[in-house]
Structures are given as C-alpha cells and as structure tokens.
Amino acid sequence: MMILTNPQTENADARRTAGSVSAIEMRGVTKTFGEVIANNNVNLDIRYGEVLSLLGENGSGKTTLMNMLSGIYFPDAGEILVGGKPVTIRSPKDAFELGIGMIHQHFKLVDVFTAAENIVLGLKEEGRYDKKEVARRVREICAKYGFDIDPDQKVYTMTVSQKQTLEIVKVLYRGAEILILDEPTAVLTLQETEKLFSVIRNMRADGKAVVIITHKLNEVLAVSDRVSILRHGEYIDTVNTKDATEESLTEMMVGKKVELNIARDDIPDKKKRLSVEHLSVTSPEGVKILDDISFEAYSGEILGIAGISGCGQKELLESIAGLQKTEDGASVVYSDPEDEQDKQLIGTNPKQIRKLGIHLSFVPEDRLGMGLVGSMGMTDNMMLKNYSDGKSLFLDRKQPKELAERILKELEVVTPGINTPVRRLSGGNVQKVLVGREIAAAPTVLMTAYAVRGLDINTSYTIYNLLNEQKKSGVAVIYVGEDLDVLLELCDRIMVLCGGKITGIVDGRTARKEEVGALMVKKV
Amino acid sequence: MLSNTQSHGKEPFVRMVKRDGVPAKKAWGIRLIGLLLALVVCAVLIFAITKLNPLKVYTTMFQGAFGTTRRSWQTVREAMMLLCVSLGLAPAFMMRFWNIGAEGQILVGGVATAGCMIYLGDKLPSVLLFAVMLIASIAAGALWGFVPAFFKAKFGTNETLFTLMMNYIAIQLTSYFVAVWEKPYGSNSVGIINDVTNAGWFKPLFGQQYGWNVVIVLVLTFAMYFYLRYSKQGYEIKVVGESENTARYAGINVKNVIIRTMIISGAVCGLSGFLAVAGSSHTISVSTAGGRGFTAIIVAWLSKFNSFVMILFSFLLAFLEKGAAEIASKFNLNDYVSDMIEGIILFFVLGSEFFIN
User: Fold this and answer.
1) Is the CB of B232 less than 8 angstroms away from the CB of A372?
2) Suppose B270 and one of A396, A400, B99, B109 were both cysteines; which one would form an S-S bond, judging by CB atoms 3.0 to 4.6 Å apart?
3) ipTM of the complex in this document
C-alpha cells in the first residue's frame, strides 16, 4: 500500500498518470443536522488528473459532502484521507493547507476591492503587499489555464462569469491542487459554460483534481471522467462517464425512471382570456423595460414566454397581476368566462382584481420573497390571498388548514408539519406549496415565472404535469421559462422577448430550437 | 500497517450546528440553566468584590422584591408597567418597525393624563374624568406613533432615528409642562397632583391599591394576544414584517398597515403613561417613563411577541430592578453593583437563546 506524505510535495510525474493517484478518499462519512441525515455513510474517491462529477437531485447532500472537505462542516462519523493519510479538516484554513479549494455557489468576494486585492485577502504572506508581483502571478495563472481576468478591475464592475473566474484564480493562487466547484454553470450562459469547461480541461491536463457538483446531465457527460451519484444523502455508485448515458444516470439519480415526454394535447375551442395591448413599463431610472407589448392568451393553452433573463418577463407578469406601474395607454383586458364581460386590469391592485371576481393565479419568481411568507407554516400561507374574505375581524384557519393538508398529501410535500415555517423546507417543497395554493384557487389564468428553477427532475415534472392538467381543464397558462427544450415540449405557443420587445410568437409544435434561440437575441 | 492510529485527528473543540426547532420543554430547561449559571457567576463576583455571603445577598434581593406585601405590590406594579409597554411594542416590532420611541409615547400619554387631572380634576364627575384621561393619553401616544409611521409610509424615512428624535421632543414637552404646572412655585416639580381631592387617582380594587393596574394590563394582554394571533390585522402585520413584496402580492396596503399598526403601538404605550400617572406616581416629570420604553424592548423580543410569555419576563426584570436596589441600600453598596448583577443575569438569559435557536 502506497502512502503519500503530502499532496503538495508529491512529484508531478505521479500526478500526470491521469486518474490513477488518489487525491482524497472519504470513507463512511456521515453528517446530520438535527433529525435530518444529510449524508449517510458516503464513500468517495477523488483522483489527480481527473474531473469527477458529483451528481444528485436538490437536497441529495452534494454540497454538504463537499463542505466537509472545505472545512465548513465537520463530519459526525467517518474518515477523510488526503493523499492516503487520515486528516482532520477543522476550518477552511486547514482545507487550504491540504491543497483543497472550493468555489461556492454564492461568491465570497469584496465588491469594492480589485481582483488582485480579493486574491491576496486573508493570505498571511510575509512582507508588504506587492501589487506588481501579485498581478504578475495572477497573469501567470491566467495564461496557464486560459483565464481572462484583469487584476486591477474592481469586483463590482464584473459580470457573474468574471466573478466566478476570479474565485477560481483565487483558489489556484493559494496553491490548491484539488478544486471543488459547486454548481458552477447555474449562473452562466452557454458560451460562458463552454469557456469554463475548457478551463477545467486545462486544469485536468495539469494534473489537478477537479470535482464539479451538478444536477445537469449534459454537463456531466460533457466534462467529467467519472460520476459519483448521491440520492437522498446516500451514496449510490461511481461510474465511468464513457460508460454512462443520460438515462442510466437519471435512473441512478432519481431511483425510478422518469418519463421525459410531456403529453401535449391540443385543446379545441380556445377562448380569448387575456388581451394585452401597448403595454410599456419604465424603470425608476428611466430605462424602458417593456416596450409596447401586445399579445393574447387563450384558455386551454400554455403560452410560453422565452427570453434571456431580465428582458422584461418579471415586469410583464407583474403588470398583469396589478403589481407594476405601467405607462399611460396600456391595456390589459380580461374576458370573464362567467359573466362574459371584459374587465380592465390596468390601474388595479391584487385585491381589486380579486374583488372583480377574476381568478388570476400567479407563481412569482421570488418564491419566499413574494409568493410566500417564509416564517409562516403551510396553513398560514394558504390564506395569504384570501385571508380577508368575509366580514369577521378574525381569521378562519379551518379551510386553510384543510387545504394545507390536502396539498401536503397530493403533492407529497416533505415537511415536519403543516405549521413548520416554509422557509425551513427545501426549494422543491417550497415551490410545491406555492404552486399548490395557486392552483387550488381554481384559476382561469395561471401565470408562472421560472416555475422549475433550481428544482430537481422529479419535482420539475410534478410541476409540468400540474400545469398541463390546468391547461386541459381550460385554464389560460402563461409559462415564463428558461430551458428551451422544456418550452418547446410543453407550450402551445411561445412568445419571445428581447430587450423588452416581442421579437416573435411561434408555434411550440413546429418551432425549432435554433429559431427561438435566434429570436432571443434579435434586435428590433 | 497498524502503526499509526494516532493521527485520526481530534474533534474540533467547539462545533456549532444550527438547531432545527428545539422542543418547548427543552428550551425552557435551557433558559433555567442559563438563569442558574448567572446566579453562580454573580455569587462568585459578589464574593470576590464585597466578601459578602452571596446567599445572603440573594435572600436580600428576594426580600427587596417580595419581602413585604407592600414591596410585592410595588414589584407587581412595576411588572405591569413594563408589560404594558411591551404589549405596545409587540405589534410594531412584529412588523419589523423599529419603534424605539416608546419612552416618548409613555411621556406624552403621561402628560395628557396629568393635564386632564389638573384642569378637569374638580370639574368632571369621577367616571367621566377617567374616560377623558384614558382617551387623552391614548390619543397622545397614538399621535406620537402616527408621526414617524406617516413619514415612513409616505417618504420612506428611517423610523429608528425618527422615533428616537420623537423621544427628545416628548422629554422637552414634558419639561415645558412641568414648568407650567409647577407647584409649589420654585420647586421645579409638579408635586402630587390633586393630593387633597385624589381626583383622577385609581381607587383601590379588591382592597388593593394597584388592583386596577393589574386588571387593565391583563385585559390588554389577552386582547393583544388574540389581536396578533387570530385577527386579520395581526396577520397583515406579520406579512408586512416578513416582506413588503409578499404583502403587495397578497393585496395588502402596506402603507395603511404601517400607519395603523404604529397608531396602535403608540396608543398602548400612551396608555401606560396613563397608568404611570393616574395609577402610580400621581405626578409627572421627565423621569416618569424611567427607561421602561427601552427595557420593554428586551421583554418584547425575549418573549418573541407572545403576550403571555411577556408576563414572565416583565416580572423577571421588575424583580431584578427591585432586588438590586434593595441590596444596594442594605449592604451600603452603590448602584453599580446592582446594575452589574442585573447585567450579568440578562446576559445569561439572552445568551441561552443562542443555544435554543
């Protein structure tokens, strides 16, 4: 048995034998938070000169496991070996000394500092801060791996991708041999992702051990050599990427085969439900966010809204929901199927819309900051929109409680109880509570903004199916999404926004992905 | 191979893990341990500094607060005052409106009460006089709550600074009226108002001088509990406190809720000024509020805005104050020692929340 003394002094020749030398071994690692088991008896093998994907659904314990390597958490049981030697990682400092560097999902940078200042921040080097020397070393690292970064640029002027690059450079500057990236592509565009992957490949070629945490299968297949799969905190298996397919990985990740096809029925006899005309919105800074938007939404169809994020999707939905101030001349007319009257929604607020007898449901992008009250349990959240019904001064919690129990059962919400603050639930369960409530309100128009963002495959499909059922029962569904594949499979029509303008409305059944992609960047 | 079992690593000395919901029983156990630890630390300190027997000091403390019937009632009166102010602060803090202006709201309530007693004491029949005093104190407090709330709602001003500044206005206003109502001339104090007729003084209830104080505050305790927990307005307060965006999404008029809630908050604090003047001191001075507007913030937060838990913490703080004052005088210690004891006990009680959350 070969025992290595220190990964940093270990010679580079051994490392170049790609994927043969163990960097980190985790054996039987267990971590619990209160009654929740985040990791149970997990084994993991990270090797130099190799990219390992850590794959799993939301809440499967990927980040927790890696946080134990970076010194943020300490395992309850099990052991960690670095270079074959058992180690104790008590703090991020310990981790750095062992050559482990983690790039977190939320960046830990000082906005008003330059890139170079952020890099040396916290380093205990002798002597004074030599700006030129730091810049030289930063450029050296950049040249070696293909980064593009200006050491003198202030962080607050950087794009998300640049900030991420800076985080990686920071870790490399400290001499990390083992890099862990937590969902690195979540915030990147397609081109930026490609660039990141090429950097990762360069690091692999240099003999570094790279771990990427992800739940995106295409990325796993594109960049990694091996895949380790976690499910509900349990270690499932490790396979070579070349032997894996999307289907086999999905099965290991979710446990049961998920039907990847969405049944899209064509509902006959569509009725006009919403007609938006000349809708414009200007931000307080004077920027035009929505520019003369006109479209119609029909019952029995899902109208998809595609676009790069920040192109006015949020403002569009909020204008319809009575939450956004609009420019003069805008009109949003709701055709009520009950009394067959046309009702103007511009100039109303959510309460007035309810008073008009309009069943408008809205699943906003910011679930805990707008759709739900984080500190309240399911019951109290159920009555958020209709608590004021009736003349009594006091609340009636009977019906909300029944509704909460129904949603808990039907949507399989995982929570310690219906009175547990919803903030404590995982992202997917929070969304189930929100969508459940909005659908229970028997809407005639249902608007959703990024309804599956951050959710795992299982929960995403629960949501798709719910939306599909709503459509079948005659609801006009508006679905703002970011995944083009899903939009093309789910929606009857897709409206594309670019820079606050409509660049096209296409048929979801016949449109091609490239066509929609082109509309998303089209200048009008 | 078996040679090195040594470097299996030591556990870190301290590991902090966020707890997920501690059962209520355990939580109270932790608080009790905190209190006991505080007493032990105080004992060591008392002995180290004064060489007195700590047990004796504690006994004296208890006697100071509950030694005689009279003292017990004074402690109760003090606790009721604190409780009343805390009840007033609860809705504001629940809405995440940092009302640190209770001190001023108490004072203006007190000034209004004293004014009614002075000008109307011999003109109105007793019942009517009380009604006018009550309404005047509530209205004055409500006004003091309304002003910062209005500016916050309309112009987004910072309520912390605003309510704090309102305190200074209230203090100066009180000074002004003390000068106007000065009696006897040159004493720079109002003296006991209506000391001959006792007009506008709380009558004893069930033979107890502070009976009315207890009854009024306890009724208010129940009312506030149900208001915050079961009323629609209480629900709105919670939603606005959590997130204004969520409130807008739910169709709640955030500005109205802010103003309405602060009127209620100020009104209850104003009412405690009424209790302080009519039910207790029968005079008015700049020290009528006596820092209770700030102490009550501790009570409200420690109780997590639960009215019934507030009773407990009000008594704890009232007990500490009375007890500490007693040991200061009995053992010829100055006030600073009692302040230290108070501080240490509060530190441990607050500190135990760290192990609960």
Assistant:
1) no
2) B109
3) 0.80
Using the Cβ of A235 and the Cβ atoms of chain B, whether some distance falls under 8 Å is answered with: no
pTM, entire model: 0.74
Question: In a mutagenesis test of the A interface, which of B1, B230, B240, B243 is the best target, namely the one with the most A β-carbons within 10 Å?
Answer: B243
Residue A152 to chain B, least CA–CA distance (Å): 37
Q: Is B157 exposed, middle or buried (0-12, 13-18, 19+ CB in 10 A)?
A: middle
List, by residue range, all CATH 3.40.50.300 domains of chain A: 17-252, 274-359+446-455+476-524
Chain B, window 211-240: residues with a beta carbon less than 8 angstroms from a chain A beta carbon? 226, 230-235, 238-239
Query: Of A463, A447, A473, nearest to A360 (Cα)?
Result: A447
Q: Do A33 and B18 touch (CB under 8 A)?
A: yes
Which of B234, B243, B251 comes nearest A350 by C-beta? B251
> Around Cβ B350, how many Cβ atoms within 10 Å?
13
B184 touches chain A (CB under 8 A): no
Task: Report yes or no: A120 and A44 within 8 Å, Cβ to Cβ.
Answer: no
What separation in angstroms does the CA of A315 have from each of A288, A289, A319, B224, B265? 11, 8, 6, 39, 36
Contacts of B21 in chain A (CB under 8 A): 34, 416, 420, 424
Q: Does residue B249 sit at the A interface (CB-CB below 8 Å)?
A: yes
Q: Are strands A342-344 and A331-335 parallel, antiparallel or unpaired?
A: antiparallel
Under CATH, which architecture does the A17-252 domain have?
3-Layer(aba) Sandwich (3.40)
Q: Which of B242, B249, B252 sits opposite A364 (nearest CB)?
A: B249
- Tell me which residues of chain A, numbers 404 to 443, contact chain B at a CB-CB cutoff of 8 Å: 416, 420, 424
Q: Letter for the amino acid at A390?
A: G
- Indicate yes or no: CB of A416 within 8 angstroms of CB of B21: yes
Maximal CA-CA distance, chain B: 100
Residue B78 near residue B322 (C-beta atoms within 8 A): yes
CATH number of the domain at B76-321, please?
1.10.3470
Looking at CATH, the fold of the domain delimited by A274-359+446-455+476-524 is given as Rossmann fold (3.40.50)
DSSP state of B208: B
Each of the 524 residues of chain A gets a pLDDT tens digit; together they read 344 344 444 444 444 455 578 889 999 999 987 666 789 899 999 999 999 999 887 668 888 899 999 888 889 889 999 888 899 888 888 898 899 999 887 788 888 998 888 888 877 777 777 888 888 888 888 888 888 888 888 888 888 788 888 998 998 888 889 999 988 887 777 778 888 899 899 999 989 999 998 877 788 888 999 999 988 788 989 999 988 887 788 778 766 544 556 778 888 888 899 999 999 998 877 778 899 999 999 999 999 998 876 788 889 999 999 999 899 989 999 988 888 888 898 888 898 898 888 899 999 988 888 999 988 999 999 999 888 888 888 888 889 999 999 999 988 888 888 888 888 887 788 889 999 999 999 999 999 998 887 777 788 888 898 999 999 999 999 999 877 778 888 999 999 988 888 999 999 888 887 788 778 776 66
B239 and A34 in contact by Cβ < 8 A?
A: no
Whether A394 sits inside 8 A of B1 (CB atoms) is: no
Alpha-carbon span A80 to A46, nearest angstrom: 11
Beta-carbon separation of B232 and A350 below 8 A: no
A378-395 burial, b at 16+ Cβ within 10 Å, e below that, comes to bbbbbbbbbbbeeeeeeb
Q: Does B357 touch chain A if contact means CB atoms closer than 8 Å? A: no
